[in-house]
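Example 3.2
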Amino acid sequence: MRSLLFAPCSMAFTTWLQGHLLPCPFKYFTGIDCPGCGFQRSVVALMQGQWSASLALYPATIPLLLAIIYTLADNFFKLDTPKKIIKTSAYITVASIMLISYTFKMAHLYWL
């Protein structure tokens, strides 16, 4: 019953959010997608439950959100080791996914 009450609010929020996405200044000035282009649309798709669309729009969204959640939890509960091995590994993983997906996007658009 509770989810039925929040469903219209959630749908209204995601509809509003789709109309108010921030423009990319890098793309505006250069005409080239930046490594973060697609993230906002991917989050909206994820909020709508469209996992495959979210993954297709920006593959690093889910790992990035998980890394942010872990970082916030680590700040409150001190989950990581003193050398921050887990956070460092998560950041490197997210950065690698971003770099690989951006390389494929640029290769597909400009070189192939």
